[in-house]
Amino acid sequence: MDKIKMTTPLVEMDGDEMTRILWKMIKDELLLPYIDLKTEYYDLGLEHRNETNDQVTIDSAEATKKYGVAVKCATITPNAARMTEYNLKEMWKSPNGTIRAALDGTVFRAPIIVKGIEPCVKNWEKPITLARHAYGDVYKNTEIKVPGAGKAELVFTAEDGTEIRETIHNFTGPGILQGIHNTDKSITSFAKACFNYALDTKQDLWFATKDTISKKYDHNFKDIFQEIYEKEYAKKFEEAGIEYFYTLIDDAVARVMKAKGGFIWACKNYDGDVMSDMVSSAFGSLAMMTSVLVSPSGVYEYEAAHGTVQRHYYKHLKGEETSTNSVATIFAWTGALRKRGELDGNKELMAFADKLEKATIQTIEEGKMTKDLALITSLKDVTVLNSENFIKAIRETFEKM
Ligand code: NAP
Ligand code: MG
Q: What residue ranges line ligand 1, CB within 6 angstroms?
């Protein structure tokens, strides 16, 4: 059988530890035998980031802008322990943070649904995709611990010197103060990324804030979304048969719990931080969660939502057997290949991505899975496979299909 040809390369960002091991296995077993794989390879492994003074991360983000689609392996975000472990020149920034800033992107996280791994919320039949605004609010705050009585004011000084001044509170004793901000530019990018992704995946988009209480701050989010929607997206949404729906955050939370799923939930930064952990744990496992970074200009970077699975890697280094789940990393590849196929009009590549996803799901549904899933599945008679044999089992299913 001829291998599937590609016209444009994918930007391939290799990573660290156990996921780097899985990365190679996935390529060798599931991709290279079937695709004439064209990638522009960037090694974001911590050693190479250190050697290049992190230039490789910046280069990989630039390449993503150029080609439009990237697939990324999980990477170590250095901390004090990693400084010593890898003898680092500097505590390099999180690659994900660097790439997100370069692409001005929004991250969409979605669970992979299989029979036998049931969500805790029993009416969730379809995935809920969570989009988190990744700039500002409480994550870029200024805080004061107020020592005692006094007046707190909010002051904005324009470039021409004019002032806007509001009293926050007249303190009669000690307390606390916090200043937060966001920008119309960042909210606009977020809104566009959400609308584009909804069109792309043909799912309704929900957005919620607390605009009844925060009549200027949160209301600004609501207004920007509404304005962009009406100006640029309302017609496209109608044609696609999908809806944009705005409500209050508490109402959204209540509705999400009663919903069937199958929509995108856009959240402000803090809401997204909290709700993404709730949604992902309720769907079963971080190892079954995909993540895609979408820029407002329509550039895509696919990855797994989990990290480098360090604990398994250390076992692997000691020569012990591991049973690490490669599903989210496989879906990062299929997501990227499908998108590449879509942009290049390469139907074969798109069909390959669909089929590999089906084979992966079917393998689990037939009872062959890694240990993390075996611990939570409702299926009987499961076979627990090691990291490598699980990938080989997927290949067998794929070949049979
Ligand atoms: P992690 O790699 O997500 O793993 C945490 C634990 O979750 C694992 O020890 C394992 O539990 C379970 N797990 C996660 N993925 C799994 C999989 N595919 N299969 C089976 N079990 C899985 O998080 P971490 O250990 O806190 O972080 C390790 C490194 O990853 C850190 O250096 C961090 O900076 C980095 N990180 C990178 C990204 C990214 O690149 N996007 C995201 C998060 C973290 P058991 O040990 O109980 O089996
Ligand atoms: Mg969090």
A: 74-77, 96, 286-287, 303, 306-311, 324-325, 372
Phi first, then psi: give them for residue 303, nearest 5 degrees.
-160, 175
Q: Which amino acid is residue 310, in one-letter code?
A: Q
Best of 91, 280, 308, 384 for a ligand 1 pocket test (most atoms within 8 Å of beta carbon): 308
Give residue 75 CA to ligand 2 midpoint distance, Å: 17
The model's pTM: 0.90
CA–CA separation, 366 vs 114, rounded Å? 11
Name the closest-CA residue to atom 22, ligand 1. 287
256-286 per-position pLDDT tens digit: 999 999 999 999 999 998 898 888 888 878 8
For residue 274, how far is its CA from the centre of ligand 2 (angstroms)? 6
User: What average pLDDT does the chain have?
Assistant: 95
Beta bridge partners of 301: 70, 293
Specify the pLDDT at position 297.
85
- pLDDT number for residue 255: 97
Phi, psi angle pair for 33, to nearest 5°: -65, -20
